[in-house]
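Query structure, 228 tokens:
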């Protein structure tokens, strides 16, 4: 339990809590493992709790009536998903599948609700995190509606580079999944990556991308235009 409590301290959803609070969370968290491609839940399934990724990556997505898949988020270690069910008691609003072999902590809704009643600070932390998630989704909708694919890709690379802290991005998802996240197709994604390489903005080698010109990428992300 001590190891789990230590892991929870590094998760933004639970940032700033006391040791006793982390230990209380560790007591109700259930570790689960999923194979690559294994479904965690489907849109409309009963919201029995929420999840935190310990290792691997989880794809959150929706499928249109025409069968087109739109990836909403790729959750990596330390990120949470499915939290809305805790507050609404309704079904999950999207699908979740393990994009890689993944290990997660599952927090049952009833047990977590009991903790919230005893300690409202947990709810305040979650509300702040959910507010940030709403802003991210609003940004995604804006990008898909107004920006060309180069702008979306530049913004996403800057996000990943900033998260890792060293300007190097390791893509642990396929180009097909990344293309779906950006609302395009793999062929278009490959062409844009090649153009960014030729311009000296990035250097890509397989699944690793190094940002060479952050300011140049920021200009493309801001303008959201096509690359000539």
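Result returned for the query:
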């Amino acid at each position: 339990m001590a190891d789990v409590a230590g892991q929870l301290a590094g998760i933004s959803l639970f940032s700033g809590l006391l040791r006793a609070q982390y230990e209380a969370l560790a007591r109700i968290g259930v570790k689960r493992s999923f194979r690559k491609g294994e479904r965690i839940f489907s849109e409309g399934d009963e919201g029995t709790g929420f999840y935190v990724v310990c290792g691997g990556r989880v794809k959150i997505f929706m499928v249109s009536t025409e069968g087109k898949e739109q990836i909403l988020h790729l959750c990596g270690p330390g990120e949470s998903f499915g939290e809305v069910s805790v507050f609404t008691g309704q079904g999950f609003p999207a699908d979740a599948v393990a994009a890689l072999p993944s290990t997660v902590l599952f927090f049952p809704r009833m047990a977590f609700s009991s903790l919230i009643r005893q300690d409202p600070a947990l709810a305040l932390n979650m509300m702040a995190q959910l507010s940030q998630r709403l802003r991210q989704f609003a940004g995604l909708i804006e990008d898909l509606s107004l920006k060309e694919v180069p702008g979306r890709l530049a913004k996403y690379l800057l996000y990943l580079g900033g998260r890792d802290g060293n300007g190097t991005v390791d893509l642990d998802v396929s180009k097909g999944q990344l293309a779906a996240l950006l609302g395009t197709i793999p062929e278009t994604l490959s062409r844009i990556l090649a153009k960014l390489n030729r311009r000296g903005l990035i250097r890509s080698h397989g699944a690793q991308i190094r940002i060479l010109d952050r300011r140049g990428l920021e200009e493309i992300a801001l303008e959201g235009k096509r690359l000539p």
